[in-house]
Design brief:
Elements (H helix, E strand, L loop, with lengths): L8 E6 L6 E4 L5 E6 L6 H14 L9 H15 L5 E5 L6 E4 L4 E5 L7 H13 L8 H10 L3 H16 L6
Parallel strand pairs: 1-3, 4-6
Antiparallel strand pairs: 2-3, 5-6
Helix pairs in contact: 1-5, 2-3, 3-5
C-alpha cells in the first residue's frame, strides 16, 4: 500500500463566489476558490489565517453583544450608513445575515466566542451589504478598502470552525 501523497492546491477565481472557500474532493484534490475582486495576496492571507485559527485550542479572546453593537455603530459611521440593530442567532451553516431593508444585521452567536478581529470581519461583511447588495467584484474591492486583511480574518474563522465544530462551517 502506497502512502497518500498530498495533492497540490488549485486556486480558482469566481465572479459569483460569496466567500473564500477551501474544499477537498474525495480524491484529496484541494481547491481554494477566491471571489473576483479579492486582493492579490488573498490566498496567502486566508491560508495563514486558516492555519492560525485551526491551531486555537481556545480562542485567545472573545467579545460581548454590547461590544458587537458598539462596533456596528463605529463601522456604520465610517461607511456612511444608518446604525443597524444587531441581533444574534444559532445556525450551523451561516455566520451572518444582512437585512438592509430593515436596517438589521444578524450574527451567529458563535462569533462572540472568537477574537474581536474575527467578529469585526463578519460584521463588516454584513454591513457592506447595506452598500453593495451582492458578492460582486465591487463588494470585495470595498471590503479590501475598509479591511485590507479580511482574507486573513476569514481564514481564522473558517480554520477554527473546521477544527472545532466537526461539521460543515457556515457561509
Amino acid at each position: 500500500m502506497q502512502p497518500k501523497t498530498r495533492q497540490p492546491l488549485r486556486t480558482v477565481t469566481r465572479r459569483n463566489a460569496g466567500a473564500i472557500r477551501l474544499t477537498a474532493d474525495p480524491r484529496g484534490r484541494r481547491t481554494l476558490t477566491l471571489p473576483l475582486g479579492a486582493p492579490e495576496d488573498a490566498a496567502a492571507q486566508f491560508l495563514a489565517g486558516w492555519r492560525e485559527g485551526a491551531a486555537w485550542q481556545e480562542p485567545p479572546a472573545s467579545s460581548t453583544e454590547d461590544e458587537a453593537s458598539t462596533l456596528a455603530r463605529l463601522w456604520a459611521g465610517r461607511l456612511g450608513i444608518g446604525t443597524p440593530s444587531v441581533g444574534f442567532f444559532r445556525d450551523p451553516w451561516r455566520w451572518g445575515l444582512c437585512r438592509w431593508q430593515e436596517g438589521a444585521v444578524l450574527l451567529n452567536e458563535s462569533l462572540l466566542r472568537l477574537p474581536p478581529q474575527v467578529l469585526e470581519e463578519a460584521l463588516l461583511h454584513e454591513l457592506e451589504h447595506f452598500r453593495v447588495h451582492d458578492h460582486s467584484p465591487q463588494f470585495w474591492r470595498e471590503m479590501t478598502v475598509w479591511l485590507p486583511d479580511w482574507p486573513l480574518r476569514e481564514g481564522q474563522l473558517r480554520g477554527w470552525a473546521s477544527a472545532h465544530r466537526g461539521r460543515k462551517t457556515p457561509g
